[in-house]
Amino acid sequence: MAKALLTVVVSQGQSRNPEKRDLERLISEKAAALPGIHVLVIPHLYDLTFDGETFAKLRELDGDLVVLSWLYDRATHWVLDRNGVRGQFGEVLLKPADYQPDAEDDEEEEESSEEVTKDRVSQTQPRPQRNIYCIDLRASEQSESFINEIDRLLKITLQSQATSHPELTQWLAGSPSAESLLRYLQPNNDVGLSGVQNTAPATQESSPLSFFGTGGLTRIDEHPSRRWYPVIDFSRCTNCMECIDFCLFGVYGVDRAETILVEQPDNCRKGCPACSRVCPENAIIFPQHKTPAIAGAPVEVGGLKIDLSKLFGAPESDEDALAVAARERDEQLILAGREAVGTVTRTKSTTTTDKSNQPKDELDSLIDQLDQLDL
After folding, report:
1. What Cα–Cα distance (Å) separates residue 265 from each residue in 56, 247, 268, 310?
2. Digits of tens for pLDDT over the chain (375 positions)?
3. 358 exposed, middle or buried (CB, 10 Å; 0-12, 13-18, 19+)?
4. Helix (H) or strand (E) holding 353
5. Among 37, 80, 162, 331, whose CB has the most other CB atoms within 10 angstroms?
């Protein structure tokens, strides 16, 4: 089988909504029919485990990828990255109707020397020079919209390949010479650009893409259970360790280079996004959260000029984002049979904990009984 120019990965959603499944099917079938494309249909990306069949297969791929999922593109990219499928952010033009790019303020950036000198984790961890294009399946209800975008990305990949193949460059220009046509169709070693022996006749109707073949469609029938865990956006993360200090469930750890990582993802309490609220760089994503900013929607990095508590879904009250995060964490601690810790306020010399609103444990009750005895 000819080697595909571009691999398209279709990540099926958790929902069994027939309209969504039909859209996934149409995109998969139409993309697989394009020359130079191989389609890989996988389960929901976020639920997959690092050592599962799907990620093992994805890590074997070394070319450009187009990944379609029911997640924000930023969430998709960093779920892939944390599972060893790494590359550069590929520019995608097909966006959801409510998409808003990250807010930028050039004047503010010039004035803020702290922002300029702040190091991001991704700067110390170079990614391979291949593009990963992440497309949100919520961007359109029409399969043709996705096929047109895939076709556009295919042409970009073809143009990139053409830089090392002059014959293909002439094809793209639309005016191949007779000699280059002959060399392309019938090279001296009888092997075409795809690495497969050429047997096709040299006709003017031939297309350079046809010699890569049609990669077809492959399905991976892994059956993961639903998961809930944080995903770190290393293009924003500054390794400040706020998350590891705040989380009390052992989710976070550090690697040998003392870089933060999600060490025990399945220790995370389902539905709890508290650590994302305390991250000063908005670098922690919970892809399945109902609030877009926490789920990976575009949001300005650090120094926001808006009310963070409202942005991240806090109630309309005087309760700030830190208080919301502490409350969410305490709820999960109590559900796990542990003691709540309240809001921790750090200063340079003191650390205080507010436990006034916490439920009393057995020791508290015993002390109250002793006080009543007036011994």
Report:
1. 18, 12, 6, 27
2. 446 789 999 999 998 899 999 999 999 999 999 988 999 999 999 999 999 999 999 999 989 999 999 999 999 999 999 999 999 999 999 998 877 665 444 444 444 444 455 789 888 888 898 999 999 999 999 999 999 999 999 989 887 776 655 555 555 566 555 555 445 544 555 444 444 444 444 443 444 444 444 568 999 999 999 999 999 999 999 999 999 999 989 999 999 999 999 999 999 999 999 999 899 999 999 999 999 999 999 876 554 433 444 444 545 455 666 777 777 777 777 777 777 777 654 443 344 445 455 555 666 666 666 666 655
3. middle
4. strand 351-354
5. 37
> With left for phi above 0 and alpha for psi between -120 and 50, is residue 337 left, alpha or beta?
left
- Residue 241 sits in a domain of what CATH number? 3.30.70.20
| DSSP notation for 192-250 | -TTSSB--S---TT--GGGGG---EEEE----PPP----EE-TTT-----HHHHH--SS
Closest CA to 7 of 47, 43, 34: 34
pTM: 0.71
Distance CA 35, CA 151 (A): 10
- In terms of domains, do 301 and 239 share one? yes
Residues 206 and 248 in one domain: no
Helix (H, G, I), strand (E, B) or coil at 54: helix
- The 3 state secondary structure assigned to 322-334 is HHHHHHHHHHHHH
**Hey, is 76 helix, strand or coil?**
helix
**Residues with Cβ within 8 Å of residue 287, at least 6 apart in sequence:** 46, 71, 72, 75, 76, 79, 231, 295, 296
Closest to 27 measured CA to CA, from 17, 40, 15, 36: 40
Number of domains in the chain: 2
